[in-house]
Each structure stands twice: as C-alpha cells, then as structure tokens.
Amino acid sequence: MTAARGSAEWSRAVDAARAERDRLWLVDGVLGDMFSAAMGSQLRKEFRDCSAERAKLDHFHAVRDSVQPELDTADDRVDELLVGPEYVEQQRRSRAEIRARGRIERSR
Predict the structure, then answer these.
(1) Hey, CA dihedral for 44, 50, 55, 61, is it positive or negative?
(2) pLDDT-based confidence at 105, cuts 50/70/90?
(3) Is 61 domain-assigned?
(4) What is the domain range of residue 52?
(5) Helices assigned H by DSSP within 1-108
(6) Tens-digit pLDDT profile for residues 51-98
(7) Among 18, 85, 86, 96, whose CB has the most other CB atoms within 10 angstroms?
(8) Which residues contact 21 (CB under 8 A, 6 or more apart)?
C-alpha cells in the first residue's frame, strides 16, 4: 500500500481490511457454534442415530482448515496497515512456532 497513513485512501483500505477480517471472524464463529451444537447433540443422543451431526462435523473439518489461513491473512492486513510490516512478520513467526509446538504435542 502506497497511500499515506491518515489519507482518505489509507482510511478506505483500513475499513476494507477490517470488514474482511470481521467477515471471516463471523464465519469462524458460526463454524465453532455448528461444531459445538453437533457435538452436544451427539452426546445427548449417546452417539446413536447421528448422521446429521456427523455431516455437520465433516463440513466443519473440511471448511475450518481453509478459513484459518484466510483469517490469519486478513488479521495480518489490518495489522500491517495499522502497526506496520515488522509487527506482522513477528506475529507470523509467533504463529508458526505455536503451530509447530501443537503438532509436536499431538504427535506424542
């Protein structure tokens, strides 16, 4: 982005980046709610006759993995505009380290 900080063009870019981030946070929230509802329903049914719930969980798993990288990118775009690229790079490294630790823990 070449627009000067505080300019009308910069403000529009910030607004657009925030709107995209907020949209993806909403999608992430809906997916989380769908997951929780499906799991709760399965528990109440004692995991019997749960084909609808399993379909919802399958959808959650299929979509969630694509939403998270988009959400990270949208968060990074807002941060880049408001804080700067150095901060964004630091956040990316931190996320990569956390995810790497998570993979190690799950593999044990």
Answers:
(1) positive
(2) low
(3) yes
(4) 8-107
(5) 8-44, 51-82, 85-107
(6) 999 999 999 999 988 998 999 999 999 999 999 999 999 998 998 888
(7) 18
(8) 71, 74, 75, 77, 78
Q: For residue 67, give both structure tokens.
A: 């939403």
Residue 39 placed within a domain? yes
**Furthest CA-CA distance within the chain:** 60
Is 14 within the bounds of a domain?
A: yes
**Closest-CA residue to 82 (of 9, 10, 2, 8):** 10
pTM over 0.90: no
How far apart CA 78 and CA 88 sit, in angstroms, is 9
9 touches 34 (CB < 8 A): no
* Domain count within the chain: 1
Nearest partner of 74 among 5, 11, 14, judged by Cα: 14
In a domain, 17, yes or no: yes
Token code pair at residue 69: 């990288």
pLDDT at residue 39, rounded to an integer: 95
Distance CA 27, CA 71 (A): 10
